[in-house]
Design goal:
The chain is α/β, with parallel strands linked by helices. It has two domains: 6-44 and 289-391, Alpha-Beta Complex (Aspartate Aminotransferase, domain 1); 48-285, Type I PLP-dependent aspartate aminotransferase-like (Major domain) (Aspartate Aminotransferase, domain 2), CATH 3.40.640. Helix content is 43%, strand content 13%. The chain has helices at residues 6-9, 17-28, 47-57, 72-86, 102-113, 129-135, 150-162, 185-198, 227-230, 255-268, 274-285, 289-311, 337-349, 375-391; strands spanning 34-35, 96-99, 119-124, 140-145, 169-173, 201-205, 231-236, 249-253, 324-328, 351-352, 354-355, 366-370. Helix 8 links the parallel strand 5 (169-173) and strand 6 (201-205). Helix 3 runs antiparallel to helix 11 (274-285) and helix 5 (102-113) packs across helix 10.
């Protein structure tokens, strides 16, 4: 019997697995581990959202199969959100699909639109599904810069000239995971123009749309005139409404891509549990105080992390958006690499982080810090970091170099 499965061969060992196993062992032994590794919100949805879930769950008729594409009311609610937030008109029937989380939606779309041998342009470093969703389908990945700067379009031009076959898909995601880079509307205009010129489909991951810390809200590629001609965009309720475990996301935009995604999904799932979809409608159509509260919460945690880690001897750049900080390993310990550094930080400082190498080759030398612990725990983590750095020969404020 052959157990050398084609798609499994294309997946490398999971970089985070060793650190996660260490964390589990330490907690099983009673150690207090401060987990800044996984982007798992520590809050709960607003009471009215939970109440709607319970209300609909009590209906005996709500427990059968749902609609793979999402119930009509939820697709209308998402279209309403895009109109309020971005000024973008969407047809709920042809331009909106409800997905079982944005991660799963991206993977389903990759199955729908790519074939073995296709070339896909994806940022490096990036959220793993941006690359591995396509690798699993047999596509080849050509890396482009994660930062939306001048080099981005130079590398795109280079990729179009020197890739065989020509790339068919461009993946972008801002605010980005893990780097927290942000993009403005001028950048999206260039992306749309480039995609039209080179006949590229664009997949935009906007999962962190509502977690921004500046005065200007993050834009959508669909705000660009003609954006819907080339682009599909994924959003998620996971972070915005603290509903990560509910697995509720959306794809909106280009009708051809939406139709392809909906068709594949119709073979793979029957849609999310109807009470969850009803609760998602309540979230989108109800009071939005929770969105502003979550944004303020992550901003406050960001400020505490940057300040306390800086005083501990680790300069963490202040992210402009998302629930993550993308931190270079302190220079004196850079030789360890991101995986070994993360393991040492866990065992010696009792702080878990995500190794940058898990997000692509360009992530080496960095770790991702998630803003998922309260301010007291973040300061506790900083104290552990300070002791760790001092013990490993790093000059820290108020510490001793050993």
């Amino acid at each position: 019997m052959n157990d050398d499965f084609y798609r499994i061969r294309r997946l490398p060992p999971y970089v985070f697995a060793e650190v996660n196993a260490m964390k589990a062992r330490a907690r099983a032994e009673g150690e207090d581990i401060i987990d800044l590794g996984m982007g798992n919100p520590d809050g709960a949805p607003a009471p009215h959202i939970i109440e709607k879930l319970c209300e609909v769950a009590r209906d005996p008729g709500a427990h059968g199969y749902s609609a793979s594409k999402g119930i009509k009311g939820l697709r209308k609610a998402q279209a309403g959100y895009y109109q309020r937030r971005f000024g973008v008109d969407l047809d709920p029937d042809t331009e909106v699909v409800v997905t079982l989380g944005s991660k799963e939606g991206l993977a389903n779309l990759a199955q729908a639109i790519t074939a073995p041998g296709d070339v896909v342009l994806a940022p490096n470093p990036s959220y793993p599904i941006h690359t591995f969703g396509f690798i699993i389908t047999g596509a080849a990945i050509r890396s482009i810069p994660a930062a939306p700067g001048p080099d981005f379009f130079k590398r795109l031009e280079y990729a179009m000239v020197y890739s065989v076959p020509k790339p068919s898909v461009l993946v972008i995601g801002y605010p980005s995971n893990p780097t927290a880079y942000v993009a403005d509307l001028a950048f999206y205009r260039e992306v749309v123009a480039f995609a039209k010129e080179h006949k590229l489909w664009v997949i935009s991951d906007l999962a962190y749309a509502e977690i921004y810390f500046g005065e200007e809200p993050t834009p959508s590629i669909l705000q660009v005139p003609g954006g819907k001609d080339v682009a599909i965009e994924f959003t998620s309720m996971s972070k915005t409404y603290s509903m990560a475990g509910w697995r509720m996301g959306f794809a909106v935009g280009n009708r051809t891509l939406i139709d392809a995604l909906a068709r594949v999904k119709s073979y793979l799932d029957y849609g999310a549990f109807t009470p969850i979809q009803a609760a998602a409608v309540a979230a989108l159509n109800g009071p939005q105080d929770v969105v502003a509260e979550n944004r303020a919460l992550y901003k406050a945690r960001r400020d505490v992390m940057v300040e306390s880690f800086g005083r501990a001897g680790w300069d963490v750049p202040s992210p402009e958006a998302s629930m993550f900080a993308w931190a270079p390993i302190p220079p004196a310990l850079a030789h360890l690499g991101s995986v070994e550094f993360a393991k040492r930080l866990l065992s010696e400082a009792k702080v878990a982080v995500a190794p940058g190498a898990g997000f692509g080759s360009e992530g080496e030398g960095f770790v991702r810090l998630a803003l998922v612990e309260n301010e007291q725990r973040i300061r506790q983590a900083a104290r552990g970091v300070k002791k760790f750095l001092s013990a490993n020969g790093v000059n820290v404020p108020g510490g001793q170099k050993e």
